[in-house]
Structures
1.
Amino acid sequence: MKKDFLSIADLTQDEIFEIFDLTRDLKQKTRNREPHPILQGYTLAMIFAKPSARTRISFETGMFQLGGHALYLSPQDIGIGKREAVKDIARVISRYNDMIMARLFDHADIEELAEYASVPVINGLTDYNHPCQIMADAFTILEHRGTLENLKIVYIGDGNNVAHSWINFAYRVPIHLVISTPRDYQPDPATLQRAREAGLSTIELISDPVEAVRDADVVYTDVWASMGQEDEAEIRKQIFKPYQVNQELLAHTRKDVLVMHCLPAHRGEEITDEVLDGPHSIVFDEAENRLHVQKAIMVKLAGKA
């Protein structure tokens, strides 16, 4: 049976760490400029309803480094669910390509894409979650700390797709996850309940950001208004102002705290320049690791690892 990657919850804990082991190997090969054409002759169709620099660059570069070819399909090329039915696109692309990566708005669209595609489907982002990003983030923490278990990871800001992916990660790997959002911007209750009922991780919702980051090992933030929420940007700036990750907030964390952001960052809004460019920031390490983790995911889904 073909395997898709729509959510971190799709993976077992063993599979997550197998991907991390493979990521480590592929990263070393890339750094050493050692050829690794594991997917030679494979093609990846990349469907973009939402544009992205990192997602396109990392998947396209990664597939090239693996010996395959990636095809960029813009919103003008495929009006997914509008110009053509999702199930029809899924079946047609499956006849042409070995794998599909899609970056969409509606999560139901990627679920339908996976249902009707006969090749593996990778979630490059939906409004519900962003699993490739959090896999890269967790791998980056692992590189810097040597472990993930029971680290206190504090997500600050909007209870968005990144927050949901961290909750899904906590559903599979034991961590201490704290989500700090304004009360009207909390993450999906059903996702939260499932992860809590799994009993693997400690998961807290703490509205006060100062209380939330106390003794944090990792502080993570994201933009306050995601793509498609531009009309809410100004009001969100006022509501989220106390949630800015700045030096004053970091004073309440561990002295060796790691600071993360999935990018693009709105400097001076959710995070200050001095923090993003400061000694605690591992933001550009995590950005690089999108490349390596996604290569490992593609190799895994292709059944080559």
2.
Amino acid sequence: MELVEGVVKEFIRAHRISPVTVFLGVPRNLAVLRYVELPLAVKENLEESVGYQMEKYVPFSIEELYFDCQVIRESKDIGNIRVLLIAVKKTAVEPYLSLADKLGLRLSGIEISSTAVANYVLSLPDLKDEDCCALVYLNEEYFEFGLLRSGFLDYSKRIEGETLKSNPTEVLGRELKNLKAVMGPQDHDLKTLIFGSKADLPPALEEMEGLDIHMRDSSEFGLASPELIPAYGLAAKGIMKLSMKTNILPERFRKRPNRTGQYIMFGLAGLLILSLLAWGGGKIVSGQLYLQRLNTELEQLSVEVAKIEKMKARVSRVADHIDFLNSFYTNDVSVLEVLKELSTRIPKSAWIQRLTFADRELRIDGLASSSSELIPLLDASSIFEDVSFVSSITRDKQGRDRFRIKLKVRDSN
């Protein structure tokens, strides 16, 4: 446990993980697993009802156990329910709880490796609509067999020890036949999924009658080793809705997940899984950190895009100014030249109040001490012609002449 503690601490430190929602897995051989048929009426108070009869199903008192139960099938026509009961002695779980305390973690749940493997299978996209299938998990130390019906683990068995080591092929063949027998008669072959380190099956087993065997490669979901499958199933329980919800950790000990934050889940499933978590879990956490970095980059790019949009608007305004200035040129005659000529020819005693220029015709309205002198001054210009008053001259209250003059701009050609 000290070795495991060091591995997990280093993993948390290396990936800068704060204490978050954690699911812990314990080996299947530490638990007692029973399938119980109960009246439908006890469904509302299932845990309390099972607790009263615990010694009927498990050879220990309820004070010695952590346990949980889940309805996996309901038959309203006959008025009963099928319940999966999982019980683990407190003394068997204490080393794992002690490890969590040393790591400063509050657990959200504890479950056995069998239900974790079932959750892994139930999380596979191509199996979400599968009504019934068998699963076989092959490990170097043990084999686990299960049957999934309507998304629930309806049968579970673990084989380990000398019997397995002496003749694993015989054990596998016998248990595959048992799975077929448990399923009962049906009009199609039972889909059987095999996961684990023993990738090659004898031809006799692959062609077993009544079974549709599929060898599944865990690497298709980024798992470096099949031994990480239970850990994947634990982590999946924290981030998606799965039908297997067993949790032997008492309610009072459970950490309440913060639904406003982002879930970061990793599972611990026994000594071997804990020792490998720094490797397999690192990929999951690295993916989350990479996603966070991408989100940060996207936010920074959004700011840059906003700046570019502002710059585009500014360029558009400058382009409008340029178009406006370009409009000052009619053919080869510059309005600026016309204005310069007017400012030179018109004396300081005169003021232009309004000026219009279109189609080489210029009209000016204004005030002057003596408007009559404007005509010869403008007519003497080299770029003006046909200078004349548009209307009669009037005077304002200060005695200044109010004039309106029109003239044409000569064509330079």
3.
Amino acid sequence: MNRRLLSLLFCLLSVLSIRAQAGMTASVTDSLGFPRPRAYRAVWFTTLGGLDWPVAPATNKASRERQQASLRAQFDRLQAAGINTILFQTRLRGTVAYRSALEPFDYVFGGKSGADPGYDPLAYAVEEAHQRGMEIHAWVVAFPVCRLSDMKSLGTKALPRKHPELCYKSTELYIMDPGQPGTAKYLSDLCTEIVSRYDVDGLHLDYIRYPETAVRFDDSSTYRRYGQGRPLKQWRRENVSRVVRTIAEAVRAVRPDIRMSCSPVGKYDDVARFSSKGWNAYTAVCQDPVEWVREGWMDELFPMMYFDGDNFYPFMFDWAERVGAKQVAPGLGLYQLHPREGNRQLGVYVRQTSVIDQFHLGGFALFRTRFLLDDIKGCYSYFRRTYGNSPILPPSMSSHPLKEPLPQPEAKVERLDWSLQFSWRKAYASDGSPLRVNIYRLGEGEPLLVASRIEDSSYKLTPALPALLHSRYALTFYDCYGHESEPVVVGL
């Protein structure tokens, strides 16, 4: 690490530490080692082309069961590595991973475009993630639609044929035009369909920007019609922000508990001592995520920071300074460990995650899942060793601060052979939503999260070691916005 970068890290330490402490959940006392740290430990779970899942289509009962078993196995391993959030690709390219009234199934699920795989993949993924105490966010690719080669198989279901006024034909790809007023309404309807029908914890917007210059995108006619003399870049930023605002308002009108996030380009803009080299969110692709957080349309940013060194750390801290450390969870390009993708060394990500943890940012997201689970250069072993033994919860929603303390659970524990049976009286938040339960084991070190997001009124725990049957345990209530109650301690 060079001297300029080291100096920058030390200069920002005090500022970011103060901001991070201010943003920590402080709803439980510290007498037992609470409050616990909170951060996203997320992965992008890519369904486009089956890059992460599914590996084969479901065309009959046997192949459907294999497809589901593959998802369960991946979720098991992600949980073991301390992953607490799945960014599940739900809208791919004008095709989807659920039974939608607006867009057809992608071919990867049922073997051909529009084919139903015999079950609802999104519903199944939500259920399996929640059983493992993980959040699942619907990852929606916003503006890119389908390639020209896909048009024939999609037929009349293709978005450019249903709504040609919303789509621009680039060289080999159709792209929704952010400048068309109907684009915001269409995407907000799609997102509202998802959050109203599925118990997803968040909505994650991707490619919510204009194309890079290498992609031909001539919106001059739209600009002439709607630009009203504004500078082109300003008008484009306003278009993208209008889409974000429309989606956020529509979604939260239905589900105020939905966590809103996006994956902007990795550098917001140039910083004082470092150039973005022409590739940034604000100027190059006309997206302003800082405004989206400031206006409350976004809770969290997962900037795609697939860089290192002077291209990573100064820009990571720039995001944190602009929106607050806890609302930035850098996206890390784990795929670049592969010899054909960059051949980086694991140490790059060891340093990056260590700095993220040290400065109490909002966590990290890994791209992509398959590179993690394939243990390229030992990356899975590192994450499992470092984070799997100390699972934590994602941050609470910044847009919904806790207004009054949650009640404590009325809980007890009984021993059943080699297991512990916890039980409690169900309770509800002031808005009527049910409270879930988290269980921690207390010991000499920090409390260890052993089960989370439990929706029932009981839970059976079988410790790995018989001696742990005699440990003390703490239970907390957990609301839909991620806030925790004071802990109550139980033990035999």
4.
Amino acid sequence: MDRLKIQSQQDIYTDNGRMLPLMEEFYTIQGEGFNTGKAAYFIRIGGCDVGCHWCDVKESWDASIHPLTAADEIVKNAAAYPGKAVVVTGGEPSMYPLDYLTKQLRAAGIQTFVETSAAYPLTGTWDWVCLSPKKTMKPLVQNYALANELKVIVFNKHDFIWAEENASMVSTQCKLYLQPEWSKSKEITPLIIDYVKENPKWNISLQTHKYLNIP
């Protein structure tokens, strides 16, 4: 099905973003990429058709099993914490209209970050866009220019080629990260270290929250 058609259907399903299929929300420390170590409120939206075989939150894929939750309630919950940054993730958040959510978050003085494969047109107003491209459903070309950060998950050696293909599409100001897929981190991390030493435009991202045993 056409991606724009799917996104249009989601507009109706979510009352144009005023209701969202919420899988979970929690206050924690950002563990990956440029904003590692920052206190943030995470909003995980259910629903994803990108289908990464190594996904560690496959329970997020089926939006129907996650309750539609008022965006206003989500904003209220986020605002109760001292860290004034929200990370919207999934699932695949770009499937949904997020203009209303980000408008309300920003009105509450909260920074808005999104982590997305960018497989659908991005909606919402964002202080930081982390684009994490997936081979199973490539990002839309127009989304590359919006990326503040490119984070490529490395599962095998070919992913270094995939990373360079995507790096050629983002702006020169975009921060570049290579992150080992968790289940293969012992095997892949040494390869990433060597690659970054030879290609210093890249940085290493680790899932530090897993090492620290925090959500």
